[in-house]
Specification:
It is globular, with a radius of gyration of 15 Å. The protein has a four-stranded mixed sheet, covered by helices on one side. Strands 1-2 form a two-stranded antiparallel sheet. Strand 5 (130-133) and strand 6 (139-143) form a beta hairpin. It has helices at residues 43-53, 77-85, 106-111, 114-117, 152-163, and strands at residues 10-12, 18-20, 28-34, 59-65, 130-133, 139-143. It has five helices and six strands, in the order E-E-E-H-E-H-H-H-E-E-H. The mean pLDDT is 95.
Length: 166
Amino acid sequence: MSSNTIYQFSAQTISGQEISLSNYQNKVLLIVNTASECSFTPQIKDLVTLKNDFSEKDFEILSFPSNDFGGQEPLESEAIVAFFEKYGTNFPIFEKMRVRGPYAHPLYKFFADKKENGVLSSVPRWNFHKFLISRAGMVTDFFYPFTSPTSSKIRKKIGRLLAADH
């Protein structure tokens, strides 16, 4: 397994199960750090729409709740699940984690270091920072929080990655 893919990492689901990100091989992924009390929180609805729009394809969204920005994710496990269920969430939610700084989860340290991932250095500046991952597990792009998940920019890039040979 290549060391510059996300497949070397694992994370705990919101229900406490350790999952290897290699479980998502051959899928295009949008990885998003989320929070329930952020001005961008309505993007959860857009994430659900995006997932529905690509539901026939090998596409998945992975949500990583984080309290790193303004204390905007005060909820814990079951409360986070209940909050997301209000939006009809149709994608995996992982355990709350740090996404920046010295205690960031190894996946987010990987995103922050171009030497590690081979493509970019991007640290979330706020909640709803998005990373686009190819079927091969490579980071291909990132989008700032103000970019809607349903924007044509994100949709086109997902479409291109899905159309690429795998």
